Each structure stands twice: as C-alpha cells, then as structure tokens.
Amino acid sequence: MKTLSLRRHHERRIKERMRSYYGGYARNNARALGKLAQSRSPCSCWMCGNPRRYSGESTLQERRSLCFDATEAALTGDEYDGGTG
C-alpha cells in the first residue's frame, strides 16, 4: 500500500515537471499547476481536447488495429474488407 508521504513526493515531483509545460503559463499559479498535474490538459478546446470529438479522427488504437488487420490479411492471402467484419 502506498503511503501518504510517497503520494506527496510524487505529487511534488510531477508538479515540478509541469512548471515548464505549455510555455510555463502555470509556473506561478498554484491552481493551474495542480490542474495540469492531475489531467495534463489545460482545457478541452479543439486544440487540447479529444480529436475524435472535434474532427472525427480515429484513435491511435483504432488506426493500429486497421493497419494490423490489413497486414495480417496480406500475409494470409485473405481479402481485406476494411475492418467491417
């Protein structure tokens, strides 16, 4: 079980690393620094948020799966149907 002192140590370590993220905007703002340390994303706008929500882009896992399926089909000689089943 993790102790309170270990959790606090990691929290301080991560906050120190976050001070330089995004041009250092949270360097002197404790609230913004804590928010960055917890989520790593300053907001949910179209630039920072989920790309699927704003542009319909596939996730990395989905792209890897499609690539793997196409490669596997090519190796086995099966016809690849584009991942539709």
Number of distinct helices: 4
User: Into which percentage range does the β-strand content fall?
Assistant: under 5%
Low-confidence stretches: none
Mean pLDDT: 82
User: Structural class from helices and strands?
Assistant: mainly alpha
Helix content: 55-70%
- Could you tell me the number of beta strands? 0
Structure description:
This protein has 85 residues and is mostly helical. It folds into 2 domains: 42 residues, no CATH class; 41 residues, no CATH class. The protein is built from 4 helices and no strands. Helix 1 crosses helix 2. The chain is elongated. The termini are far apart. The relative contact order is 0.07.
Task: Briefly characterize the structure.
The protein is mainly α and 85 residues long. The protein has 4 helices and no strands. The protein has helices spanning 4-18, 30-39, 51-55, 60-76.
